[in-house]
Every structure is written in C-alpha cells, then in structure tokens.
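[Discussion] Sanity-checking designs against the backbone

I'm trying to build intuition for which residues belong where. Below is a structure token string of 296 positions. I'd appreciate it if someone posts a full sequence so I can compare it with mine line by line.
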C-alpha cells in the first residue's frame, strides 16, 4: 500500500514541484562582511552567502553552530533537544555549514546549487536530511572541483524519504581561484512538493461544501482516498459513517472545502464556514503540507 501511495504522489506532485527553500532563511557556520544567510535562498544569483575566512588553527573553530534562532518555526518542542550531525573538525580546517527548515515534511525531487560569482567555493559536499531535527542520515557525499568555477550550476538528485530539514556540509576549500579561504554559495534551490495525505476529520458529520462530481455508492474506502489524492481539486469526501474505518460506502467528493486556523501559533486543518450535515456520513479531509495559504 505504501508503494502504491508513493506512485500516486509521484504522478500527481511532479507537475507541482516548487522551490521549497525560496525565501526560507537558513542558518549555519558563519556570515561574513554583511553577507547574510538570507542571500542564499533569495532567488538572486548575483548575491551570495560566504563563510568567514579560515582562522588560525589555534583559534576556536568558527564552524561550531550556536543555538539557532529559528526564522520559520522551531523544529522540535524544546530547543534544548535540538541536535545537529556530529561534525568532526578537519585537520587544521573546518567545514562550512548551511541548514534550512522547509517548514513541513516534504518530498525532495532535486536540488540545484549555484556557485558564487565573486569569491569562494568548495570541493567536497555532504548532504544530510532530517524530519525531526534530531536524526541526520547522510544522503550523499560528493567530491570534485566543479564549484570552484564561478557562476556554475550543479544538479543533485533527491531522495525518497520525507524531509523537513536539509543540511549542506562543505569541505576542502578551492585553491588558486577566487579569494582563498571561504566557502561560498550564490543560490541553493530545493525542488519538491509538500506531503499530501487523507485524514479522518469528522466521524458522524460532514461539511455541505460543493460536490466535485456525481456522488458515489459502494466505493471501497482506500480506492476513494486514492481518487481524491489524484485530483488536486478534491479537498475531501463524505463517507458512510459506519464505514469510516474501512469497507465500501457511499458519499460525495467535495471541493472548495478547505480552511485552516491558528492555535497557539500553529496552523492546523479546519473547515470553511459552511453548514454541517449530521448522522449518516463522516468526512475524510485532504491535508496538504505546508499549508497552502502561507505566503499568499
């Protein structure tokens, strides 16, 4: 079943890929000379992030990341439980680090990295992923001098696991080009789609939103959920209340039937202000991550 749902997601979401990192300010190893972290995800290829120049080896490594000031939302309930990968200080050097919070679990199709046009670069890139800010599996490690050339773009394939946080670790500074001693990136794009899933929302009532198509009868629940996931206009469906946990039932697909509310600073799925029917039907809602209205 999981494999089938993954195929449904691929078929419906690939055409809806967006740059999930755009406008989301990362944090990382260091800023330098007023080059802020926000410049690496601002959509402007003429601006760039760069790390501090390499300090003397007797200096405390500048890459040790301080407690993050979360721009979008804290990744875990308590910042005290936030944990990053266990970076090992290189012999006489330190890595450059960038970490971005995508705001919600998402599927990653690919990444693009644009090298800096003014100064800096890297020869080794490690990519980490996390869904909770605690566990950080290594996705891949790549070594070449491609990003030692100014103004180039590299394409990096995505991965199947749901991801909310992506971290880049840059090692091995470029020599003989640019100004030496810095890691630098002009733009970091992460292309993918937010998670979409069906969730039981009401057990013995349903919203009287607009019907998307003629209502159905004797439809198996799992097939009905797949049909709604495959149609972007479908926001959910009513279903026989006695079959809300499984089996065949009757109901109607609904459209123009999504709403969200804020509770204690967190957005959650809600219903628009429409009348409710009660008794014979429940309601399955389509939950989209991140919430569609953010940034609108």
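Best answer:
Here's mine. Compare freely.
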């Amino acid at each position: 079943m999981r494999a089938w749902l993954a195929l449904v997601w691929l078929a419906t979401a690939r055409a809806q890929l967006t740059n999930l990192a755009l406008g989301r300010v990362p944090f990382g190893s260091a800023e330098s000379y007023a080059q802020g972290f926000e410049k690496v995800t601002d959509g402007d290829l003429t601006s760039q992030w760069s790390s501090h120049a390499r300090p003397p080896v007797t200096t405390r490594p500048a890459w040790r990341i301080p407690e993050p000031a979360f721009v979008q939302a804290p990744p875990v309930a308590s910042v005290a439980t936030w944990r990053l990968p266990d970076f090992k200080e290189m012999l006489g050097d330190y890595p450059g680090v960038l970490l971005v919070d995508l705001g919600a679990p998402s599927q990653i199709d690919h990444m693009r990295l644009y090298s800096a046009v003014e100064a800096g670069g890297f020869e080794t890139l490690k990519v980490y992923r996390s869904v909770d800010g605690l566990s950080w599996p290594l996705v891949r490690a790549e070594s070449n001098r491609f990003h030692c050339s100014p103004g180039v773009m590299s394409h990096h394939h995505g991965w199947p696991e749901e991801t909310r946080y992506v971290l880049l670790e840059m090692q091995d500074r470029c020599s003989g080009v640019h100004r030496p001693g810095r890691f630098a990136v002009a733009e970091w794009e992460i292309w993918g789609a937010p998670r979409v899933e069906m969730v039981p929302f009401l057990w013995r009532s349903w919203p009287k939103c607009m019907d998307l198509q003629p209502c159905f009868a004797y439809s198996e629940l799992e097939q009905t959920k797949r049909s709604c996931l495959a149609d972007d206009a479908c926001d959910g469906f009513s279903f026989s209340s006695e079959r809300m946990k499984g089996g065949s039932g009757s109901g109607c697909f609904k459209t123009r039937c999504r709403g969200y509310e804020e509770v204690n600073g967190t957005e959650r799925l809600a219903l628009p202000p429409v009348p409710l029917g009660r008794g014979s039907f429940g309601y399955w809602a389509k939950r989209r991550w991140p919430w569609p209205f953010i940034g609108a």
